[in-house]
Design brief:
tRNA-cytidine(32) 2-sulfurtransferase; ATP-binding; 298 residues; alpha/beta; iron; single chain; 10 helices; magnesium ion binding
Length: 298
């Protein structure tokens, strides 16, 4: 990740800005936060080669703090000529009781953001199919993903863009480690099974706390998820609590763990499908020595 940002990308008070930043605080603290979000998002986009000029991105907006942050930062990058793609915001109204259906359309229209609002009652399907006391997340996300892929194709988009951040990626890694028996997480860039859409996560380097501070400072109308949030004992919440405890005892621990995910050594993991251990043989000149040969590192 880059440590600095070009002067041309600096945000000075009073300069022309995208409507999504109207009313932004002028404090030094907020300006630093804003620059950090833009810098880290741009770094992730470049690191994982997400841009193909002229493409159209379907930017998924749930109404949560993370998706608001994603929407604002992507439009800031495009506004400044740093993101040569077309952006279409999309909210999938899944029919949850009490969902404030007018909030997002009004928010997007007032700020001149191109958008599509889609209603699909997946809530009833999830409630019908999932036994009482079980978590809804898996089925809910599959139904949501299927609808978003369909919408992306209908709108001529080449990418579905999600608001998952660094902490989501870490939590998913530990959920797979503790409960799935595998080392896996959310890739910042993924090609779907059909091979016609990229799934992108430009906030891969961004901390959840920064998304929360940004959305709060901008006073965006955050909409909570009452479906999953109403269930206690979710595995993800348990992992989040564990990471919070580690972070409180050792500040910066999350960032260290995330760097580890970007610094994988296949030869130091016991997966024979990942590394050719059969090719590790001692040199013939030392084959008669009594000492156990040292394996070569790759």
């Amino acid at each position: 990740m880059r440590d600095e940002i070009n002067e041309s990308e600096d945000f000075e008070a009073g300069e022309e800005i995208h409507p999504l930043f109207y009313g932004a605080p002028t404090s030094t603290g907020f300006r630093k936060l804003r620059k950090r979000l833009v810098r880290e998002t741009r770094a992730a986009i470049e690191t994982y080669d997400m841009i193909r000029p002229g493409d159209r991105w379907l930017v998924c907006l749930s109404g949560g703090k993370d998706s608001y942050t994603l929407l604002a930062v992507l439009h800031e990058l495009k506004w400044r000529g740093l993101l040569p793609v077309d952006l279409l915001a999309c909210n999938l109204d899944q029919g949850q009781p009490g969902f404030p259906a007018t909030v997002l359309p009004e928010f997007l229209t007032e700020r001149g953001v191109a958008h599509r609002i889609e209603y699909q009652d997946t809530y009833s399907i999830v409630k019908e199919k999932v036994p009482e006391g079980r978590t809804y997340c898996s089925l809910c996300s599959r139904l949501r993903r299927g609808n978003l892929y369909r919408i992306a194709r209908e709108e001529g988009c080449q990418a579905v863009v999600l608001g998952h951040h660094r902490d989501d990626i870490l939590e998913t890694f530990f959920m797979n480690l503790f409960h799935g028996g595998r080392l896996a997480s959310m890739p910042p860039k993924l090609l779907n099974e059909e091979g016609d859409l990229n799934v992108l996560r430009p906030l891969a380097f961004v901390a959840e706390a920064d998304c929360a501070r940004f959305a709060s400072a901008m006073n965006y109308p955050v909409i909570p998820c009452d479906l999953c949030g109403s269930q206690e004992g979710l595995q993800r919440m348990q992992v989040k609590k564990l990471l919070d405890e580690w972070e409180s005892r050792s500040p910066g621990r999350r960032q260290v763990m995330f760097r580890a995910l970007m610094n994988v050594r296949p030869s130091h993991l016991p997966d024979p499908k990942l590394f050719d251990f059969s090719a590790l043989m001692p040199d013939s000149a030392h084959s008669n020595e009594k000492d156990v040969p040292i394996l070569r590192e790759h």
